[in-house]
Amino acid sequence: MNSRWRITLLLLCGLLPTTLLAHGVAASDARYLESVSGLQFIPYLYLGAKHMVTGYDHLLFLAGVIFFLYRLKDVAIYVSLFALGHSITLLLGVLASIHVNPFAVDAVIALSVVYKAFENVGGFRLLGFSINTKAAVFLFGLVHGFGLSTKLQDLHLSPDALVPNMIAFNIGVELGQFTALALILLLFSWWRQSTSFLNRAFATNMAIMTAGLVLFGYQLTGLLLTA
């Protein structure tokens, strides 16, 4: 096993347990958000970026989305569709008080990771299904946005300047996504220079799928226990 493959496995193994904490708002951040009122543009911007960088379910899904995208144009299209969907439901969920069971939402988010990895290994082709991948990324972006909005709705946020604060938070989320995505692209660009990329692509996507299944089981258990 060459060094690049070992590094990739270590990264995926590191992501696996932390997926269980995805979408959560740290206790210190929650206390801060509940203690402030009025326009807090920079703090909300920072916390939005922090959430995305530590949102491992987002990152696993996006890694799957761009896994076989070699042109920056294609990466931009798919990531923009995801960002659009994510932004719509994040803002709509909080500002319109549309609340969804967080375990149910996070279970679907976990399935989005499974779906993308399964698609990458050609699973749907073997089953005879043809999926509009752009539409799927947009729809799952909508679900991912609800994942965070449900967490924010559990906090007692001040209604004063809530709209601009949520816009700042969403901008931060997208900036965090851009930063994380740039790092993922650099990793993939480095790995693609090796012949091991295509040789290990199947195993890597199976590892991503496993992470999604573990997260799905965790969220489904939570859903059943709280039903």
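The above is record 1. Record 2 follows with the same two-line structure.
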Amino acid sequence: MLEIRFAGFGGQGIIRSGIIVGRAASIYDNKYSTMNQAFGPEARGGACSSQLLISDKKILYPYITRSDYLVAMSQEGYSKFESEVKDDGVLIIDDDLVNTDSTKKVLKIPSTRIAEELGHRIFANVVMLGYVIRVTKAVSLEAMRKAIPESVPERFVDKNLKAFEKGYEYA
């Protein structure tokens, strides 16, 4: 079983990230997945996270115990959840938004900056997803290419696919 936590703040697409990867796993890669979310009372700007479990077998307990990967897109998300990552787990951070002094393995991508270069920072989560999928191999590239169009507004499908590919290439 693979346990991934996405953490950031409202408005970054943290919840949607879990939904997209969970959909790719369950529908297109024929795996089992569960996703739980947590967010503060603020609509935007408050802390939020999504927990994603992916397995080849039925998942009996739908919550993360200790994550294999923490994908942190805000300093607060990193600070809150870094201690819950397994000792041999990996931190994947937005290099421009998160500073770390962790002794765990840390992988960095400037996902927000890449998204801005693509035209808008709103695509930072999908840039990050491209990176995460290439690094973790949680789901197949084809599954993601099918799940993204079903998970974003139709008018943004092409830009999201391009953002995903940028993150994938960066890794």
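The chain has a mean pLDDT of 94.
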